[in-house]
Write a structure and sequence with these properties.
Radius of gyration: 16 Å
Mean pLDDT: 94
Number of strands: 10
Oligomer: single chain
Largest sheet: 6 strands, antiparallel
Order of helices and strands: EEEEEEEEEEH
CATH architecture: Sandwich
Number of helices: 1
Helix content: under 10%
CATH topology: Jelly Rolls
CATH class: Mainly Beta
Shape: globular
Amino acid sequence: MKITTRLQANHIDKPEGTKVDYYLFDGYELHYNEQAPHTTQTWHHHEKVWESLYIIDGELTAQWREKGTEKSQVVQAGDLIESEDTPHTFTNHTDHITKFIVLKQVLSNTNHRNLFKTDKVLD
């Protein structure tokens, strides 16, 4: 078992109001985010990396551009976003910090759903 403490993570306070702890590994990256109230992240997209975002506490407005049309949806604790390769940003319109986890991976396009369901051995 390997444990990486928060003190070992790379911490960055972004100018647009998000505090991030980055945990970077060979095969994936996980980061913990706290987005300040009334802040918006910079628009961006990923060409090769698959980004999944899970809201832990609070809510964000997800905004993305799809085929020339800007779309948005409010997401809350328990919601999962997969940004795919679309330009996107997140705004915290609330008066509270929103906490979320981001998982970044380079996908192999291999379906591992069955493996995820069955790869648990009881000791």
